[in-house]
Design brief:
The protein is mostly beta strands and 170 residues long. It is built from three helices and twelve strands. The longest helix has 9 residues. It binds flavin mononucleotide. The site of flavin mononucleotide (FMN) has 16 residues, from strand 3, strand 5 and helix 2.
Amino acid sequence: MSGRSVTDESLSPARFRQAMGRLVDGVSVLTTVAAGHDHAMTADTLTSVSLEPLLVLVCVEYETRWHDAVIDAGVFGASVLAADQRPLSEWFATRGRPLHGQLDRAPHHRGELTGVALLDGALMHLECRTTDVHAAGDHAIVVAEVLSISLPDTVGPALVHFRGRYGSIA
Ligand SMILES: Cc1cc2nc3c(=O)[nH]c(=O)nc-3n(C[C@H](O)[C@H](O)[C@H](O)COP(=O)(O)O)c2cc1C
């Protein structure tokens, strides 16, 4: 029995954020192309869902520009960041950055199946096709089939996010 609501101080969004910040997250940059333009966004919600078929999900806030872009495109890329890519994580999480040219500072190549940008130096890349979108509060849960996996040979330390700060793990 719940009987509690977000007006209860112990269930405030700020406290929830604080609690979930104690879960160590890997950091990805999600990419897509809509109306001929690249869109990219930092995300810590890339999650493995299923092996048969291969499925992942990402949780995307409705008010992000990336949300509208991925709904339009139906495909996206995910690049899991290495520790030395922290500046890119910060950049792609900066609200109000210019949309056009935002990938200029991020060396990248194109996924062969989808044409989305995949960041060079990342720990791994996925190309994905959206299969379902579920409404969940102020976010959409985007479920997607994995179309390609790339695993570069060199794997340095990973970028992680913990208690609102960046760190690394080897
Ligand atoms: C470490 C980190 C993880 C994030 N994870 C997500 C996420 O999973 N989903 C999301 O919608 N926003 C996430 N954000 C926030 C977006 O990156 C940020 O709102 C971004 O500016 C949205 O892109 P836009 O400015 O083009 O709308 C995260 C930010 C940081 C710093």
